[in-house]
Protein backbone atom coordinates (compact mmCIF):
# COMPACT_ATOMS: atom_id res chain seq x y z
CA UNK A 1 0.00 0.00 0.00
CA UNK A 2 1.40 3.38 -1.03
CA UNK A 3 2.11 5.98 1.64
CA UNK A 4 1.08 9.40 0.35
CA UNK A 5 0.94 12.56 2.46
CA UNK A 6 -1.19 15.33 0.98
CA UNK A 7 -3.45 18.15 2.13
CA UNK A 8 -7.09 17.40 2.94
CA UNK A 9 -9.51 20.00 1.54
CA UNK A 10 -12.43 18.99 3.75
CA UNK A 11 -10.39 19.08 6.95
CA UNK A 12 -8.88 22.46 6.11
CA UNK A 13 -12.29 23.88 5.27
CA UNK A 14 -13.85 22.71 8.54
CA UNK A 15 -10.87 24.05 10.51
CA UNK A 16 -10.81 27.47 8.92
CA UNK A 17 -14.31 28.30 7.74
CA UNK A 18 -15.44 30.09 10.92
CA UNK A 19 -12.46 32.43 10.68
CA UNK A 20 -13.03 33.09 7.01
CA UNK A 21 -16.67 34.17 6.91
CA UNK A 22 -16.10 37.94 7.35
CA UNK A 23 -13.43 38.05 4.64
CA UNK A 24 -15.52 36.01 2.19
CA UNK A 25 -18.44 38.37 2.75
CA UNK A 26 -16.23 41.36 2.07
CA UNK A 27 -15.09 39.84 -1.22
CA UNK A 28 -18.62 39.06 -2.33
CA UNK A 29 -19.92 42.53 -1.45
CA UNK A 30 -17.00 44.47 -2.93
CA UNK A 31 -18.58 44.86 -6.35
CA UNK A 32 -21.28 47.29 -5.14
CA UNK A 33 -18.99 50.27 -5.65
CA UNK A 34 -19.79 51.88 -2.27
CA UNK A 35 -16.39 51.23 -0.71
CA UNK A 36 -12.79 51.45 -1.82
CA UNK A 37 -11.41 48.31 -3.38
CA UNK A 38 -8.02 46.56 -3.43
CA UNK A 39 -7.49 43.81 -6.03
CA UNK A 40 -5.25 40.74 -5.77
CA UNK A 41 -4.75 37.63 -7.90
CA UNK A 42 -2.87 35.13 -5.71
CA UNK A 43 -3.64 33.30 -2.45
CA UNK A 44 -0.65 34.89 -0.70
CA UNK A 45 -1.45 38.48 -1.68
CA UNK A 46 -5.16 37.94 -0.98
CA UNK A 47 -4.35 36.58 2.47
CA UNK A 48 -1.86 39.31 3.35
CA UNK A 49 -4.04 42.16 2.07
CA UNK A 50 -7.17 40.80 3.76
CA UNK A 51 -5.31 40.41 7.05
CA UNK A 52 -3.80 43.89 6.86
CA UNK A 53 -7.13 45.53 6.02
CA UNK A 54 -9.25 43.70 8.58
CA UNK A 55 -11.55 46.05 10.54
CA UNK A 56 -11.16 48.83 7.99
CA UNK A 57 -13.58 50.26 5.42
CA UNK A 58 -11.52 48.81 2.56
CA UNK A 59 -12.64 45.77 0.58
CA UNK A 60 -10.19 43.22 -0.80
CA UNK A 61 -11.22 41.20 -3.82
CA UNK A 62 -9.31 38.42 -5.53
CA UNK A 63 -9.54 37.91 -9.28
CA UNK A 64 -10.51 35.45 -10.54
CA UNK A 65 -12.89 34.98 -7.58
CA UNK A 66 -12.08 31.26 -7.48
CA UNK A 67 -8.37 31.90 -8.09
CA UNK A 68 -6.31 30.58 -10.97
CA UNK A 69 -2.80 29.19 -11.27
CA UNK A 70 -0.10 31.41 -12.74
CA UNK A 71 -0.25 29.92 -16.23
CA UNK A 72 -3.98 30.64 -16.56
CA UNK A 73 -4.12 34.24 -15.37
CA UNK A 74 -3.18 36.06 -18.57
CA UNK A 75 -5.99 34.43 -20.53
CA UNK A 76 -8.48 35.22 -17.76
CA UNK A 77 -7.72 38.95 -17.69
CA UNK A 78 -7.42 39.29 -21.47
CA UNK A 79 -10.72 37.53 -22.18
CA UNK A 80 -12.70 39.37 -19.48
CA UNK A 81 -11.34 42.91 -19.74
CA UNK A 82 -14.70 44.33 -20.83
CA UNK A 83 -16.85 42.49 -18.29
CA UNK A 84 -14.47 43.41 -15.46
CA UNK A 85 -14.17 47.09 -16.43
CA UNK A 86 -16.52 48.26 -13.65
CA UNK A 87 -14.54 46.33 -11.04
CA UNK A 88 -11.26 47.64 -12.43
CA UNK A 89 -12.55 51.23 -12.25
CA UNK A 90 -13.51 50.77 -8.60
CA UNK A 91 -10.00 49.70 -7.58
CA UNK A 92 -7.69 52.14 -5.83
CA UNK A 93 -4.77 49.68 -5.85
CA UNK A 94 -3.65 46.35 -7.26
CA UNK A 95 -1.24 44.10 -5.38
CA UNK A 96 1.12 42.34 -7.79
CA UNK A 97 4.39 40.41 -7.85
CA UNK A 98 5.45 42.16 -11.04
CA UNK A 99 9.07 42.84 -10.10
CA UNK A 100 9.62 39.08 -9.78
CA UNK A 101 7.04 37.78 -12.26
CA UNK A 102 7.42 40.17 -15.19
CA UNK A 103 4.39 38.62 -16.90
CA UNK A 104 2.04 39.28 -13.97
CA UNK A 105 -1.06 40.40 -15.92
CA UNK A 106 -3.33 41.95 -13.30
CA UNK A 107 -1.95 45.50 -13.13
CA UNK A 108 -1.77 45.84 -16.92
CA UNK A 109 -5.37 44.66 -17.19
CA UNK A 110 -6.66 47.03 -14.50
CA UNK A 111 -4.58 49.98 -15.73
CA UNK A 112 -6.21 49.64 -19.15
CA UNK A 113 -9.52 50.70 -17.61
CA UNK A 114 -8.36 52.76 -14.64
CA UNK A 115 -5.59 55.31 -15.09
CA UNK A 116 -5.68 56.26 -11.39
CA UNK A 117 -4.96 52.80 -9.97
CA UNK A 118 -1.81 52.29 -7.87
CA UNK A 119 0.43 49.22 -8.14
CA UNK A 120 1.70 47.74 -4.87
CA UNK A 121 4.39 45.17 -5.56
CA UNK A 122 4.50 42.51 -2.86
CA UNK A 123 8.02 41.37 -3.71
CA UNK A 124 10.01 44.61 -3.64
CA UNK A 125 9.35 48.13 -2.34
CA UNK A 126 9.45 51.11 -4.66
CA UNK A 127 12.73 52.15 -3.06
CA UNK A 128 16.42 52.03 -3.91
CA UNK A 129 17.36 51.24 -0.31
CA UNK A 130 14.67 48.97 1.18
CA UNK A 131 15.01 45.23 0.64
CA UNK A 132 12.50 42.97 -1.04
CA UNK A 133 11.80 39.29 -0.55
CA UNK A 134 14.63 36.78 -0.89
CA UNK A 135 14.85 35.32 -4.38
CA UNK A 136 15.94 31.76 -5.13
CA UNK A 137 16.97 30.47 -8.53
CA UNK A 138 15.08 27.53 -9.96
CA UNK A 139 17.33 24.57 -9.14
CA UNK A 140 18.94 22.46 -11.82
CA UNK A 141 18.12 18.78 -11.99
CA UNK A 142 20.46 16.60 -9.99
CA UNK A 143 19.64 12.97 -10.74
CA UNK A 144 22.34 10.35 -10.27
CA UNK A 145 21.19 8.30 -13.27
CA UNK A 146 21.43 11.22 -15.73
CA UNK A 147 24.68 12.22 -17.51
CA UNK A 148 25.97 15.63 -16.40
CA UNK A 149 25.63 17.03 -19.92
CA UNK A 150 21.94 16.12 -19.96
CA UNK A 151 21.32 17.65 -16.53
CA UNK A 152 22.85 20.97 -17.56
CA UNK A 153 21.05 21.02 -20.90
CA UNK A 154 17.52 20.65 -19.55
CA UNK A 155 17.58 23.10 -16.65
CA UNK A 156 18.53 26.75 -17.12
CA UNK A 157 18.77 28.73 -13.88
CA UNK A 158 16.06 31.39 -13.68
CA UNK A 159 14.44 33.10 -10.68
CA UNK A 160 11.76 30.93 -9.12
CA UNK A 161 8.40 32.68 -8.81
CA UNK A 162 7.09 30.74 -5.80
CA UNK A 163 8.60 33.02 -3.14
CA UNK A 164 5.55 32.58 -0.89
CA UNK A 165 6.59 28.99 -0.06
CA UNK A 166 9.01 30.66 2.37
CA UNK A 167 7.27 31.93 5.51
CA UNK A 168 10.12 34.39 6.00
CA UNK A 169 9.29 35.82 2.58
CA UNK A 170 5.59 36.00 3.42
CA UNK A 171 6.47 38.05 6.49
CA UNK A 172 8.68 40.38 4.47
CA UNK A 173 5.94 40.73 1.87
CA UNK A 174 3.48 41.70 4.61
CA UNK A 175 5.83 44.53 5.62
CA UNK A 176 6.13 45.75 2.03
CA UNK A 177 2.38 45.74 1.41
CA UNK A 178 1.58 47.34 4.78
CA UNK A 179 4.04 50.19 4.20
CA UNK A 180 2.37 51.12 0.90
CA UNK A 181 -1.16 50.66 2.23
CA UNK A 182 -0.47 53.02 5.14
CA UNK A 183 0.77 55.68 2.73
CA UNK A 184 -2.15 55.14 0.36
CA UNK A 185 -4.77 55.04 3.15
CA UNK A 186 -3.54 57.39 5.91
CA UNK A 187 -6.91 57.33 7.70
CA UNK A 188 -6.54 53.55 8.13
CA UNK A 189 -2.81 53.58 8.92
CA UNK A 190 -3.14 52.94 12.65
CA UNK A 191 -5.41 49.92 12.12
CA UNK A 192 -3.13 48.57 9.39
CA UNK A 193 -0.19 48.82 11.81
CA UNK A 194 -2.13 46.88 14.46
CA UNK A 195 -3.07 44.27 11.87
CA UNK A 196 0.53 44.00 10.68
CA UNK A 197 1.70 43.21 14.20
CA UNK A 198 -0.96 40.50 14.51
CA UNK A 199 -0.16 39.08 11.08
CA UNK A 200 3.58 38.99 11.68
CA UNK A 201 3.04 37.18 14.97
CA UNK A 202 0.78 34.64 13.27
CA UNK A 203 3.32 33.89 10.54
CA UNK A 204 6.26 33.81 12.95
CA UNK A 205 4.43 31.48 15.31
CA UNK A 206 3.84 29.02 12.47
CA UNK A 207 7.44 29.31 11.31
CA UNK A 208 8.90 28.81 14.80
CA UNK A 209 6.57 25.92 15.59
CA UNK A 210 7.80 23.96 12.60
CA UNK A 211 11.43 24.98 13.00
CA UNK A 212 11.28 23.27 16.40
CA UNK A 213 9.35 20.31 14.97
CA UNK A 214 11.93 19.69 12.25
CA UNK A 215 14.79 19.91 14.75
CA UNK A 216 13.24 16.88 16.45
CA UNK A 217 13.39 14.82 13.23
CA UNK A 218 16.66 12.82 13.00
CA UNK A 219 16.85 12.82 9.19
CA UNK A 220 15.52 15.65 7.00
CA UNK A 221 16.68 14.21 3.67
CA UNK A 222 14.27 14.36 0.73
CA UNK A 223 14.23 13.88 -3.05
CA UNK A 224 12.44 16.57 -5.08
CA UNK A 225 10.35 16.06 -8.20
CA UNK A 226 9.26 19.73 -8.46
CA UNK A 227 11.53 22.73 -8.94
CA UNK A 228 8.87 25.07 -7.49
CA UNK A 229 9.59 23.74 -4.00
CA UNK A 230 13.05 25.32 -3.69
CA UNK A 231 11.85 28.10 -1.34
CA UNK A 232 10.16 25.59 0.94
CA UNK A 233 13.07 23.16 1.17
CA UNK A 234 15.53 26.00 1.76
CA UNK A 235 13.34 27.68 4.38
CA UNK A 236 12.94 24.42 6.31
CA UNK A 237 16.60 23.46 6.06
CA UNK A 238 15.81 20.18 4.30
CA UNK A 239 18.65 18.30 2.62
CA UNK A 240 17.63 17.71 -1.00
CA UNK A 241 19.52 14.58 -2.05
CA UNK A 242 18.72 14.73 -5.74
CA UNK A 243 16.05 16.20 -7.99
CA UNK A 244 14.33 15.28 -11.26
CA UNK A 245 11.79 17.47 -13.06
CA UNK A 246 10.38 15.60 -16.05
CA UNK A 247 6.67 15.71 -16.81
CA UNK A 248 5.04 12.37 -16.05
CA UNK A 249 4.41 11.45 -19.69
CA UNK A 250 8.10 11.77 -20.57
CA UNK A 251 9.43 9.39 -17.94
CA UNK A 252 11.26 6.38 -19.37
CA UNK A 253 11.83 2.97 -17.86
CA UNK A 254 15.42 4.03 -17.16
CA UNK A 255 14.10 7.02 -15.19
CA UNK A 256 11.81 4.82 -13.10
CA UNK A 257 14.60 2.36 -12.33
CA UNK A 258 17.04 5.21 -11.71
CA UNK A 259 14.75 6.91 -9.20
CA UNK A 260 14.04 3.70 -7.33
CA UNK A 261 17.72 2.77 -7.17
CA UNK A 262 18.74 6.26 -6.06
CA UNK A 263 16.20 6.30 -3.23
CA UNK A 264 17.19 2.82 -2.09
CA UNK A 265 20.96 3.22 -2.40
CA UNK A 266 20.99 6.62 -0.67
CA UNK A 267 18.38 5.70 1.93
CA UNK A 268 16.10 8.58 0.97
CA UNK A 269 12.71 7.86 2.50
CA UNK A 270 10.68 10.94 1.47
CA UNK A 271 9.93 12.24 -2.03
CA UNK A 272 8.33 15.67 -2.61
CA UNK A 273 6.12 16.47 -5.60
CA UNK A 274 3.59 19.16 -6.52
CA UNK A 275 1.00 16.58 -7.55
CA UNK A 276 0.28 12.89 -7.19
CA UNK A 277 2.20 11.46 -10.16
CA UNK A 278 1.37 8.64 -12.55
CA UNK A 279 1.13 5.10 -11.25
CA UNK A 280 4.54 3.93 -12.57
CA UNK A 281 6.27 6.78 -10.69
CA UNK A 282 4.35 5.99 -7.52
CA UNK A 283 5.36 2.35 -7.89
CA UNK A 284 9.03 3.33 -8.29
CA UNK A 285 8.86 5.34 -5.07
CA UNK A 286 7.06 2.58 -3.20
CA UNK A 287 9.43 -0.15 -4.40
CA UNK A 288 12.30 1.78 -2.81
CA UNK A 289 10.45 1.91 0.51
CA UNK A 290 9.91 5.67 0.29
CA UNK A 291 6.84 7.85 0.92
CA UNK A 292 5.45 10.60 -1.31
CA UNK A 293 4.47 14.02 0.03
CA UNK A 294 2.26 16.07 -2.30
CA UNK A 295 3.14 19.72 -1.61
CA UNK A 296 0.65 22.36 -2.71
CA UNK A 297 2.46 25.16 -4.56
CA UNK A 298 -0.16 27.68 -3.32
CA UNK A 299 -0.75 29.55 -6.55
CA UNK A 300 -4.37 28.40 -6.20
CA UNK A 301 -6.45 28.23 -3.05
CA UNK A 302 -9.46 26.71 -1.30
CA UNK A 303 -12.79 27.60 -2.93
CA UNK A 304 -16.08 27.81 -1.04
CA UNK A 305 -19.35 29.09 -2.56
CA UNK A 306 -17.54 30.21 -5.69
CA UNK A 307 -14.90 32.31 -3.92
CA UNK A 308 -11.37 31.61 -2.81
CA UNK A 309 -11.07 31.77 0.95
CA UNK A 310 -8.79 34.52 2.20
CA UNK A 311 -7.06 32.18 4.66
CA UNK A 312 -6.25 29.63 1.92
CA UNK A 313 -2.57 30.51 1.92
CA UNK A 314 -2.12 30.09 5.66
CA UNK A 315 -4.19 26.91 5.99
CA UNK A 316 -2.53 25.18 3.04
CA UNK A 317 0.95 26.30 4.05
CA UNK A 318 0.38 24.82 7.50
CA UNK A 319 -0.84 21.60 5.89
CA UNK A 320 2.28 21.44 3.69
CA UNK A 321 4.54 21.77 6.71
CA UNK A 322 2.64 19.20 8.73
CA UNK A 323 2.62 16.66 5.89
CA UNK A 324 6.38 16.94 5.39
CA UNK A 325 7.00 16.73 9.14
CA UNK A 326 4.73 13.70 9.48
CA UNK A 327 6.41 11.89 6.58
CA UNK A 328 9.91 12.51 7.92
CA UNK A 329 8.88 11.55 11.45
CA UNK A 330 7.29 8.33 10.19
CA UNK A 331 10.47 7.29 8.40
CA UNK A 332 12.55 7.89 11.53
CA UNK A 333 10.35 5.44 13.43
CA UNK A 334 10.79 2.67 10.86
Overview of the structural elements:
Helix 2 (43-52) packs across helix 7, helix 8 (189-215) packs parallel to helix 12 and helix 10 packs parallel to helix 11 (279-287). Strands 1-9-8-6-7 form a five-stranded parallel β-sheet, with helices on both faces. A four-stranded parallel β-sheet has the order 3-2-4-5, sandwiched between helices. A two-stranded antiparallel ribbon has the order 10-11. The chain has helices at residues 9-29, 43-52, 70-79, 85-90, 106-113, 148-154, 167-184, 189-215, 230-236, 253-265, 279-287, 312-333; strands at 4-5, 37-40, 59-62, 91-96, 118-121, 221-224, 239-243, 270-273, 291-294, 303-304, 307-308. Residues 17-26 and 28-33 have low confidence and may be disordered. The chain is of the alpha/beta class and 334 residues long. It contains twelve helices and eleven strands. The chain has a domain at 20-127 and 138-213: Nitrogenase molybdenum iron protein domain (Rossmann fold).
Layout: helices, strands, pairs:
Layout: E1 4-5, H1 9-29, E2 37-40, H2 43-52, E3 59-62, H3 70-79, H4 85-90, E4 91-96, H5 106-113, E5 118-121, H6 148-154, H7 167-184, H8 189-215, E6 221-224, H9 230-236, E7 239-243, H10 253-265, E8 270-273, H11 279-287, E9 291-294, E10 303-304, E11 307-308, H12 312-333
Parallel strand pairs: 1-9, 2-3, 2-4, 4-5, 6-7, 6-8, 8-9
Antiparallel strand pairs: 10-11
Helix pairs in contact: 2-7, 7-8, 8-12, 10-11
Signal peptide: 1-26
GO molecular function, one term: metal ion binding
Keywords: Signal
